[in-house]
Write a structure and sequence with these properties.
Strand content: 15-25%
Radius of gyration: 28 Å
Structural class: alpha+beta
Distance between the termini: 13 Å
CATH topology of the largest domain: Alpha-Beta Plaits
Number of strands: 17
Number of helices: 7
Largest sheet: 9 strands, mixed
Length: about 325
């Protein structure tokens, strides 16, 4: 089997997502063939190399995918010092794989939660660049107005910068409580509660209804089941489509930022009224340097120095762990 990146090996084995795997490596917690890996990129052959993380040998397990209807007071972490009920505690007790929750729901949040040991899929489900849609039903305090809904659509500033909701629908607006149906494509932690608190409507209850094409479909509260092959295929297709759409949107934003120069910008309108001033007769054309010489005119010594520096640099070498 050909060598693969160490981060991918760790994510495929269910140890951590690729981003977290990089942190483990750079912290010196990963050994390959009894040698600490100190730099990235690093590569391993899963059939040959022996990988150890925090003293335990990593063995690749069969991939498993579960969907859960998470109840309240259940935490989405595999290590909880307080001893609270964890999402993995609701999985079948005889499950051989070590699964991890994909993303997070607050302890008081309910609804759809995915659990898997597929680090690659976890990365694609949680990284903001893929932009997979997640739908929530959110109950908030106070009466939400149409102006507030429009503000959420345009974007709200948080401690991490501006964030906006892809879709917002006001389902109910009472004197002391309102209900919103919200679609989110960002993966920042506690994004919805922070955004809604910033517009004056703290969250009372939050339920995740949908992740991409996946829905609870009558799954009882606290229950879980494995994803079917068809559901998994649809999920992967939705991720690919969402990523392509997000990529096009980023490209369009860059194109708009790089549009034609504004009126009055340097170099704009030359050759017409208001352009560059006429050059006195006898003065050479072209941009001039500080010494009064036209730019681009170099002495033989400076040309020699430029030639001596040509070809320096190069791309970093990959380190392959054997």
């Amino acid at each position: 089997m050909p060598s693969i990146r160490l981060q991918r090996f760790l994510s495929d084995a269910g140890v951590a997502s690729r981003r977290h795997a990089e942190e483990l490596i750079l912290e010196g917690r990963v050994l390959v063939n009894n040698r600490i890996v100190e730099t990235l990129p690093a590569f391993v052959d899963p059939k040959v190399d022996r990988v150890i993380v925090d003293g335990g040998v990593v063995r690749v397990q069969p991939l498993a995918y579960f969907i859960m209807h998470k109840p309240k007071k259940v935490v989405c972490t595999n290590k909880d010092p307080s001893g609270r009920l964890r999402a993995i505690d609701l999985l079948p007790p005889d499950l051989p794989q070590r699964l991890f929750p994909v993303g997070r729901l607050d302890a008081d949040g309910t609804g759809l939660l995915l659990l898997t040991n597929d680090g690659e899929l976890t990365e694609r489900l949680t990284h903001p660049r893929y932009g997979l849609a997640k739908v929530y039903r959110v109950e908030v305090r106070g009466k939400v107005t149409a102006e507030t809904v429009e503000r959420l659509r345009r974007g709200v500033y948080t401690s991490e910068g501006k964030a906006r909701l892809s879709e917002v629908e006001l389902s109910h607006a009472g004197a002391d409580r309102s209900v919103l149906m919200v679609t989110v494509r960002e993966g920042r932690e506690r994004l919805l509660p922070r955004m809604l608190a910033n517009v004056g409507h703290p969250v009372k209850a939050l339920k995740r209804l949908q992740v991409g094409p996946l829905e609870l479909k009558g799954l009882p509260l606290g229950a879980c089941r494995q994803l079917s092959d068809g559901e998994l295929r649809l999920l992967r297709e939705a991720i690919d489509e969402s990523y392509a759409a997000a990529k096009r949107e980023r490209h369009e934003k860059r194109r708009r930022r790089g549009g034609p120069p504004k009126a009055g910008a340097r170099g704009a309108g030359r050759g017409s009224t208001g352009g560059a001033r006429p050059r006195p007769a006898g003065q050479p054309s072209g941009p001039r340097g500080a010494a009064g010489k036209p730019r681009g005119a170099t002495s033989s010594s400076s040309a020699a120095r430029g030639g001596a520096s040509a070809g320096q640099g190069g791309s970093p070498r990959r380190r392959i762990i054997q």
